[in-house]
Structure formats: structure tokens, C-alpha cells
């Protein structure tokens, strides 16, 4: 019995770029391509042997990219009928937030006697319970042996099998309003109480250390449009959005609220407008902030189609800087063409280098027209017993309190380094510290926006390649090396 065909999504693109140019020579292929509209069955437009399951799922205008579903067996037929088009598989990219222990949960202790253990999580010295925190207890960290649990409404964490065992490493990730917790080589008594440190908005984290507020007479981002391509943004009282859209196929385009916390955190680093001591300010709160949700609900990755659709929309909305705190997928022609399209239209894309532990820079940061941003940290800007403590590793900077985050990817493609360890920013429902090259990337974007807001000569240039190059040249004048070396920090950190 033959196996049923496996259907997959593919992106159709012109031979060059993300859309047919207006002056493209008239051709049958272009006319046929224009007829491929959303929900069209390919066999209704194309001659051949395509099944009725081969369909157009989404599109970026008549002349732009098309997302289609068909089987691998049908690909030769499609190529034959649309010669000169590129057919690119749909692939996915991921937020570059550092929570490795949560993504790689402990393996149960197979075949060993089970002894339960109960912990209690409290806020500081109070009796207030910490609800919904993820707790990871490793009895053998290298072998990933241990157990994970989540605190209940009384702040109680119940383990089934790790009682009376030494704990090599303990990680606690609360949801909102608290610092994480990390300890190693400890023995936990049953019903032991662990106190978590609440986030104080007056605390000087690495963002506040390196990027203090601008003087009152500074434009502080005014006149600059910044696009954040992420999990959505807000709602949050510290964030004011100038616009946005959702580019996830099948979702409501007007629903760009955050489906996670990542995008709100990224947006807050750039442009939060809160007032101390009850709110937070971003690096350049006066920018016009646009958000583009490219992640669907209950889906880990963002499709390359959603990302290129978001980049094109950011260009249409007039964004000057575009923040992409994502990576971890394969090299992709579609995203390269979209970043090139932004560059050709006077916008610059900042991209996180990735969190793979000093491995090579991930895509799309590795693309030559991206501005790739790695992460550093500074001792004393986060509590000593948080999950960020293991990220303090050499090399250290000219100032020995500065370090390269252990998770940050490195290589010759790196353009800048920025603070990305223990960064307090906005999340739905409050404030939280997060770490990752995802946090470093908007640091650089925000610093660039602050500089660009005083350069009306560049802002007023025609939106073309020369404008994008002028932005990059301007940034080169604002960089200071931190002492880590070029394959780690590129040219250094953007100071303001």
C-alpha cells in the first residue's frame, strides 16, 4: 500500500527580490502568478496534475510572496508551470530569550525508589506566596536527571521523587514581578521555604547603568519610527503603540497583542514611557513604536513567511529601524530578500546573534545586511543568586565588571554588543527581568533611535539604500569598544 502524500508549506517568490517590480517585463508567468490569490486551488489556475489539496494559504499582494500548500510529489509539476519562480520551504525562527533549563526539562529518575519533597516559595521575608513559578531540580545536571514542578496557589512546589537526594542545581523561574533563583550543591529539607526577591523599578539593572535617561531637551527618539517584529506587544500602561499588525496566516491582522511576554519586554526596552517609581522608561521613549506579531498562539516558532510579511509592512509604515530578536532557523532566501528590501528602502534591521553558548552567529543575524547584536552583562546589576549567575564567564572587558554572556553567539558577523543579562522591562501584567541576545538587540536598536532622532539630515533623506548606509555610518561614529575583541563585540557598544 502506497503512503499518503505529505503536504508542506512553501513560499513562492520572483526570481529576484520579494515581489515583481513595477517595470517587470509583461509575461504569462507574471499574469498567472497574479491569479494565485488566497484560498485559490492551484489546479484551478495551473494546468497539470495538481490535487485539490494544493492551495494558496496567504499572500503579500498580487505581486508579492505567496504561501502555498502542496506535496513534495507535486513540486516538479509546479516548477514546470511557473518557470523562473523560486520555491522556498516554510521554516521557523525562535525568540532568543535565555531560559535553557526550562526548554530542556529534567529526565525522571528511572528505576529508583521515589521519595517526595515539598518546597514553599515566598516573597522575601513575607508570607506572600509565589504562584505559577517553574522549578527545575537537577540531581545530575550533566545527565539532565531530576524533576520539574510548578508552584500552586499557596506557593507550594511538590516533587515526587527527589526527596533525600543532593541537588546539583536548582532553578526557579517566577512569572512576573520577581527575580529568578539559582543555587547549586544543596540538600533541601521537606517544606523548606525559599524566598524570591521582588523586582523594584528603582533598581539599577544593566540597561539603567549603561543607558541613563536622556536630558529633558533631547528629542529622545522623536521623529523616529521603530518596528518590533516579535510575539506582539502589550497591552501595558507603559507602552504607546503608533500601529501594528499580525502577519500570522489565518489570524486576525488587527490582533497584535502579545501572546507571550517576549515582544512586550523587547518593546519596553526600546520605548517604554512609564514614570518612576511606578513605571519604567525605555532608552528612547519618544519613538513611534510599531509592533508586528509573527508568532501564533501555542506555536513555538515564527514562519519565514510571517517574518517577511512583517518586514514589508514595517517598510510600508515608514519604519527607520526594525528589531528582530529571533534566530535559530536555517539560512533562508526569503528573509534575506526581505532584509535587503528594507535596506533598499532606507531602513536598517537589528537582529539577535543567538543564544547557543558561543557558537557561530545564527541566521538571520549572520546575513550581511543585518546588524548583528550579541549580549554582555555587568556584575552588580542583578542579584547574585539568580539564574544569570552562571552566565558570568570570561572574557571580561576593559572594565573587569563587564563580561560576555555565556549564552551569546560569536563570530565575524557580529556588529555590536549590548547589555542582555538581567534586564528589567515590561511584560503583560507587570515587569520582569529577562536575559538573552533578544534583550541586547533592542538595547542597540534603542540607542540607534536616540542617535538618529538628532540627525534630521538623515531622517529627511529619500528612503533608499543611501539612507540605510548613512544610518550605519552614523552608528559607526557612536561605538566604543568594550575590550572583548571583534569576533565577540564587533565594533563595540553603542553609547548615548
Strand content: 25-35%
Determine the CATH topology of the largest domain.
Rossmann fold
Corresponding CATH superfamily of the largest domain:
Peptidase S8/S53 domain
- What is the highest CATH level, the class of the largest domain? Alpha Beta
The biggest sheet amounts to: 9 strands, mixed
Please bin the fraction of helical residues.
10-25%
Category from helices, strands and their pairing: alpha/beta
CATH architecture classification of the largest domain: 3-Layer(aba) Sandwich
Low-confidence stretches: none
**Strand elements, count:** 27
Tally of separate helices:
12
Q: Give average pLDDT, whole number.
A: 94
**Quick one: overall form?**
globular
* CA-CA gap between termini: 67 Å
Domain tally: 3
> Any idea what the radius of gyration is?
24 Å
Keywords: Hydrolase, Protease, Serine protease
InterPro entries: Peptidase_S8/S53_dom, Peptidase_S8/S53_dom_sf, Peptidase_S8_His-AS, Peptidase_S8_Ser-AS, Peptidase_S8_subtilisin-like, Peptidase_S8_subtilisin-rel
Domain Peptidase S8/S53: 221-468
Family: Belongs to the peptidase S8 family.
Overview of this protein structure:
This protein folds into three domains: 7-90, 2-Layer Sandwich (Alpha-Beta Plaits); 100-196, Immunoglobulin-like; 206-494, Rossmann fold. Helices cover 20% and strands 27% of the residues. The protein has twelve helices and 27 strands. It has helices at residues 28-34, 42-45, 75-81, 100-103, 206-210, 262-271, 304-316, 333-344, 437-452, 456-459, 465-476, 486-489; strands at 7-13, 55-59, 66-71, 86-89, 92-95, 117-123, 134-140, 145-150, 156-159, 167-173, 181-186, 192-196, 225-230, 241-246, 288-293, 302-303, 321-324, 326-327, 348-352, 371-378, 392-396, 402-405, 414-419, 423-427, 430-434, 479-480, 493-494. The strands form seven sheets. Strands 13, 14, 15, 17, 19, 20, 21, 22 and 23 form a nine-stranded mixed sheet that branches. A four-stranded antiparallel sheet has the order 2-3-1-4, with no helix packed on it. Helix 6 packs parallel to helix 9 and helix 7 (304-316) packs parallel to helix 8. The protein starts with 6 loop residues before the first strand and ends with a strand. Belongs to the peptidase S8 family. Residues 221-468 form the Peptidase S8/S53 domain. Keywords: Hydrolase, Protease, Serine protease. One of its GO terms (molecular function) is serine-type endopeptidase activity.
